[in-house]
Predict the structure of 4061_t:CDS:1.
Amino acid sequence: MSLIFLKFSSILILLIFPNFVNSLWPLPQYWSKGTSLLRVYPTFTVKYDPKILNSYTDQLIESAKNRLQILLKKEKYFSPNVKFQIPEDGDDSILTLSSIKIEITDNLKKDQDDSEEEYIDWTYNKEMSEGIPLGTDESYELIIPEKKNDDEKELIAYLKAPTVYGILHGLTTFSQLLYHNRNYEGLFLPFAPHHIDDFPKFMHRGLLLDTSRNYYPIKEILKTLDVMSWNKMNVFHWHIVDSTSWPVVSEKYPELSEKGAYDPKKMIYTKRDIRIVDEYARARGIRVIPEFDMPGHTYAIAASMPEIMTCIDMYPDWNKYSAEPPSGQLNPAIPETYTFLNELVPEIASYFTDKFYHTGGDEVNINCWETLAQQDDLTTESLIDKFVTNLYTILKNEGKVPMTWQEMITEHNLELPKDTVVQVWTDHTMVKKVVEKGYRVVTGSGDYWYLDCGHGGWLGNDVEGKSWCDPYKTWQRIYSYNPIKGLSDEEAKFVIGGEVLLWSEQSDPTNYEQQLWPRSSAAAEVLWSGIEDVDGNRRVPDNDALQRLNDWRFRMVERGIKAEPLQPLWCVLTGRCDKAVTTEEINKET
């Protein structure tokens, strides 16, 4: 234990602390640290040789370098539970870390000539040719010494990675090692030397944000991408349209947003908006996967094209035809629907650089199509198959890989292309059912990783209403999820990762940050660090995780994020808020 004096509002308080150590989130795979204290000033520089990089990689590093240098000037984070001692003679005896030297070990210059790569204009007005591939190497090694080498005039840190995306993660980790003290200029870097060897356990570490049920301005989406990058999340699943609104501006079908958006002038996403998001994300190592949910959840199309729709807004008896109001599904029995798909899907798919395109496919209500099936002597399942087959053919022709919600496999039993990625959402037991059919899985089911649960019902006349996925998902519940639970080693290989999900029936720009953070951070560590440590011990939401997550939450708040508190500040400061234990229980355990 250690005694610490803190001064709040001119009152000196003596607190008894456990021996806190400095915190990182998500936790690296391998991390050794020491006891030395270093200084870092805003003059700190990032060094690398641009001659060995292609132009795009050079720009990514320059962008990350600029962000770090801005952070060094703005970071004022004073941790409530990370303690380090500053020598009595002040900072005169503390060594200054002057720079970090970057090296990309897989030389991209050898693999891709500049002439083959489209130059990226960081004013966001040019297309990018390709997105970040699934499975890109994101590993890195960070070395921060406590003293200078004999042949060096200054103290230098070293960051190595096979790809630029590992470099981005390494710089993120470096930024979390820095702490502010209000009595001194610059920042402190305690517990040197540091040696971190790090890599993600899952290749798909995502966050779904529903921007259709309530609209989110581009600036809020960009802000979310920033926080995702701090948490080493690498997929932004953009649920961009739904029954309630169609905010995407199509050049071929402008009437979709003119009549389907909440506000056709202000609450829309243009082609340029989407490319701003796409490029901003890629500069932070994040893939953007769009979801255009079809054939269900499409009422918004009816405002402009009712002729290709069925069961349009069957209010008040909507629950016979849809999971929530308003009802409406595309009509799979008429050729006009497929003319619409063949013209629209290639256009909107081209707005995004990622190879993956989420087709939706959840909650298709067969009641909408029973009459159609009877007219043509078909079945509702054959109509689903016809629709999906046509949609997937279009995507294949556009070079896109389809993603879908689980129902297409688990309820409709469709034989989809084996490269299809299936997203599990109802409950975690569905993961095994999907991988047994030979499909790759992204998990994040409603019983663990749905962030909108537990806030009560939103239907106006349902006084006692609850969310379907009650109760509220605490950070402990989220952290305790094992994405590969019950799977064999071979089956586990099909789980490429997971996502936390925020559906926006009761969220919008006024409160979504509290809904997302720091609970999404809990999932981020599961997906990056893995469910076990290097010694094979199962990670659990224990005091170590709580102290680190509290520290990370306070740092995010200092950076301007409205992350919700996990505990009263007294608990964070003292660490004395565990579940009560009786003397008899303590004696029995002893």
